[in-house]
Specification:
five-stranded parallel β-sheet; 131 residues; Rossmann fold; alpha/beta
Length: 131
Amino acid sequence: MAKILVVDDDPSLREVIAEILYAEGFHVAQARDGESALAHLRSEAWRTTLILLDLTMPGMNGRQFREAQLADPALARIPVAVLSSSDADGVPADARLAKPVELEALLGTVRTLLRRARDADERVAAEKVAP
């Protein structure tokens, strides 16, 4: 089961996205800023498989979060889709979605990134088993 972390300082938007994903059968956690997202990722009981990340947040913003995530070997491989109404150029991301986010674009992006992550994990597992 895919586990998605939604990181956004807008509680209404964060909750709507979480409800949509939950209705689609995903496990969902929420964080209000980069600091709480990192704390969640580092202490979580389950492994996050995808992060939906806003860039413009108070405190540790999305750009700073992404730098910290990529610098942490335990977290660097988790795919990230940036959700932003601002300029996302220069922020490394596996996908980008403009706010306001369209439902079909969101779900399509989530499914694509999860499929890519699963395929990558399967390749790594196969390489470990191969003689």
